[in-house]
Amino acid sequence: MAESLLKVVMPASIFFIMMAMGLELTPRDFRRVFVQPRAVLTGVLGQILILPAFALGLVLALPLPDELAIGLVILAACPGGAMSNVISYLARADTALSISMTAISSVLNIISLPLLANLALHIFADDGTQVRLPLGMTMGQLAALTVIPVAIGMILHHKKQAAVERALPTVKKAATIVFIGIVIGLFSAHWDDLYDYISSALMHAFIVGIASTFMGYGLARVVALPPIQRITIAVEFCIQNVAMATLVAVSLLEKGEYGIFAGIYGIVCLLIILPAISFYKRSVQRGAG
Fold first, then answer.
1. What is the chain's mean pLDDT, rounded?
2. Which of 228, 168, 144, 176 is closest to 24 using CA atoms?
3. 94 phi and psi angles, rounded to 5 deg
4. Contact 118, 133 (CB under 8 A)
5. Residue 254 C-alpha from the chain's centroid
6. Which of 90-94, 236-240, 249-253 has the highest mean pLDDT?
């Protein structure tokens, strides 16, 4: 019953979260890729190419049960999301860069996510079933759940800027609550299997969270970005779009167990990134002093 309800609620939840993100976007956020391309391209290409490659290498080197391995790769193919923008804001990082990265990666994700999900299914789904994401239909569904709500949010921002800015704090809180509800719903749908999954997945979740954070920060440092953009890209690398990964598992693949890793990671990544940004903020304050 819980999983059937998730299949109905999930698309609406994703639509709302992406529209909430769109409320903070303006066309100039997309223009940043042309005006200040180094930071945006470093972050986006790292998320689209490096993180999925790392995730695939990890599950090949340190095997997981097939459901978790597929879920890990799908999660790595779902960069950013509204939560990463909130965390960047709390860290006093470059929120505009965070939003730009999330917006651009969400568009590119329409192409990359189905390809990477099918690759994971091809490698790890050895239970005799032929579960695949049809590329054309999946791209259309992802576009409907990313590009359209973001565009609606941007239009509302443009047409009703004052009202949107007044409502934005409440909308952000609501989007966070919806995100938490998705994680709780996923766990409740697979509660009987959760104990076994957690014992298998926790180590990988911590490895992905810690490695992705250092990977994002290190990549930004290699290309000589300023510290505020380094921490922004580190946050974007660590905070994956758990809601989107769960949508792919539950609604598109109709295999809720593929979303369990995303639910576990949604908690673990916060345990990693929140202390990291606290340390960063203290370092900045000491430097200012």
1. 80
2. 168
3. -85, 85
4. yes
5. 20
6. 236-240
Whether 114 contacts 135, CB under 8 Å:
yes
Cα–Cα distance between 85 and 189 in angstroms, integer?
A: 28
Percent of the chain with pLDDT over 90: 21
The string over 225-256, giving b where at least 16 C-beta atoms fall within 10 Å of a residue's C-beta and e elsewhere, is bebbbbbbbbbbbbbbbbbbbbbbbbbbbebb
Query: Which domains are present in the chain?
Result: 2-155+165-288 (1.20.1530.20)
Name residues whose C-beta falls within 8 Å of residue 127's C-beta, 6 or more positions apart in sequence.
Answer: 66
Q: How far apart, in Å, are the Cα atoms of 209 and each of 105, 158, 239, 274? A: 19, 36, 8, 12
Over the stretch 165-220, which tens digit does the pLDDT of each residue have?
888 888 877 877 776 776 676 666 656 666 667 777 889 999 999 999 999 999 99
Tell me the pLDDT tens digit for each residue of 35-81.
778 898 899 999 999 999 999 999 999 989 888 999 999 999 988 77
Which amino acid would we find at residue 32?
R
Beta-carbon neighbour count of residue 172 at 10 Å?
18
Whose tokens are 């978790």? That residue is 68
> Distance (Å, rounded) from C-alpha 187 to C-alpha 195?
10
User: DSSP letter at 249?
Assistant: I
Those residues with Cβ within 8 angstroms of residue 279's Cβ, 6 or more apart along the chain or in another chain: none
From 20, 51, 29, select the one nearest 104 (Cα to Cα): 29
Over its C-alpha atoms, the chain yields an Rg (Å, rounded) of 18
| Residue 82 structure tokens | 């509204």
For residue 84, count other CB atoms closer than 10 A to its CB.
Answer: 27
Tokens encoding 195 = 């104990």
